C-alpha cells in the first residue's frame, strides 16, 4: 500500500544516494488536502521526513589501504530510529542534528571496532558472528537514517499530539485511516531504499536504534510501530532485499530493546545482535500497551495485520 508514486520515490532515493554533499541531504514529505503522502526535496513544506543520508569517509585510524581501490567492498549503513528531527543535514553549522552527528562520528571513526579481532571473540550468537564476518572486509561509504514514523519533532513524547493535529486537520478521512496510509508510505519508502541499496552497494547493514524507552502513554507508539515495521520488513525481505543484514545494539543483553544512537560511541561487537526471523519481538504484550489516540490507532492496525496472518495460516 503506497500512496505516493513508486517511480517518483525511486527517483528521489536515487538522487539522494548520488549526492556527494559532505553534510548530507534529506527527503522530506508533505501532506496536502486528503492527506495523500507526497515527496519533496529541498526547501518547501516539511511535515514529515523520510530520509537523511550522507556519504562518509573512514577516519585515518579506520582506513584500510587494501579497500580504497575495491568498490565491491562498499557498505551502506542504514539506521532506523524513532522519529525524525527537523534536521536536513548530518552535520554543518546550520541544519545539522546531534543524533545524526553522533552516528556519523561513530561510523567514520569507530566502525572498525565492531568487526575488530578482539571483539570477534566476544560472547555473541552464531548468527551475529556470521554477520560480523560478512562486513569485516567492507568499507562503509554511506550512512542513511529512516524512522519508525516520519512525523518531525525534536521530542518523541510529542508525537501523539503532532499526529492528531496534523492528520485531523489535513484529511477528511478518519484519523486511523490517515495514519495507516502514512505508515505504509513510510514503510514502503524504507523497502524501496533497501532495494536500491542492494543494487548500488556490495552490502547493506540495517541497524535498529529506536531506544529502550518505548512504554507509557508518551512513548508507547514506539513499541507498536516497531512491531508493525518489523513484520512489514520480514514479510518483504526475501523478495525485495534478500541480502540486507539486520542487527541492533542491546547493551550486552539480547532481551533488551535496540539502543538509541546517543550511545553510538559505546557500540561494539560484544553487544551487537543479529536480527533474524527467529529472534522474538522485544516489546510488551499488546494487551499491556498504553492508550492514546496514536497508540490506539496503531494497535488497531496491528490487530488487523495479526488477524490477516492468522487467516492465511488457517487456510
From TrEMBL:
This is DUF1643 domain-containing protein. It comes from Corynebacterium mendelii.
Amino acid at each position: 500500500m503506497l500512496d505516493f508514486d513508486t517511480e517518483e520515490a525511486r527517483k528521489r532515493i536515487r538522487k539522494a544516494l548520488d549526492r556527494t554533499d559532505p553534510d548530507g541531504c534529506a527527503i522530506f514529505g508533505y501532506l496536502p488536502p486528503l492527506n495523500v503522502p507526497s515527496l519533496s526535496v529541498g526547501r518547501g513544506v516539511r511535515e514529515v521526513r523520510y530520509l537523511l543520508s550522507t556519504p562518509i569517509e573512514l577516519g585515518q585510524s579506520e582506513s584500510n589501504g587494501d579497500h580504497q581501490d575495491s568498490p565491491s567492498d562498499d557498505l551502506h549503513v542504514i539506521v532506523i530510529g524513532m522519529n525524525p528531527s527537523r534536521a536536513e543535514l548530518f552535520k554543518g553549522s546550520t541544519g545539522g542534528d546531534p543524533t545524526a552527528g553522533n552516528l556519523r562520528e561513530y561510523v567514520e571513526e569507530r566502525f572498525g571496532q565492531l568487526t575488530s579481532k578482539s571483539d570477534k571473540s566476544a560472547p555473541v550468537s552464531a548468527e551475529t558472528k556470521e554477520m560480523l564476518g560478512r562486513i569485516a572486509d567492507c568499507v562503509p561509504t554511506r550512512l542513511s537514517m529512516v524512522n519508525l514514523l516520519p512525523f518531525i519533532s525534536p521530542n518523541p513524547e510529542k508525537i501523539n499530539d503532532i499526529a492528531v493535529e496534523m492528520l485531523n486537520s489535513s484529511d477528511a478521512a478518519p484519523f486511523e485511516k490517515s495514519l495507516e496510509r502514512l505508515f505504509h508510505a513510510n514503510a514502503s519508502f524504507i523497502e524501496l531504499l533497501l532495494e536500491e541499496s542492494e543494487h548500488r552497494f556490495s552490502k547493506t547493514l540495517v541497524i535498529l536504534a529506536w531506544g529502550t524507552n518505548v512504554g507509557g502513554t508518551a512513548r508507547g507508539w514506539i513499541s507498536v510501530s516497531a512491531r508493525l515495521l518489523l513484520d512489514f520488513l520480514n514479510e518483504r525481505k526475501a523478495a525485495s532485499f534478500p541480502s540486507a543484514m539486520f542487527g541492533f545494539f542491546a547493551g550486552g543483553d539480547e532481551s533488551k530493546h535496540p539502543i538509541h544512537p546517543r550511545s553510538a560511541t559505546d557500540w561494539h561487537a560484544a553487544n551487537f545482535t543479529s536480527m533474524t526471523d527467529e529472534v522474538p519481538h522485544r516489546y510488551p504484550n499488546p494487551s499491556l500497551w498504553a492508550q492514546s489516540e496514536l497508540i490506539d490507532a496503531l494497535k488497531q492496525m496491528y490487530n488487523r495485520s495479526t488477524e490477516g496472518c492468522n487467516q492465511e495460516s488457517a487456510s
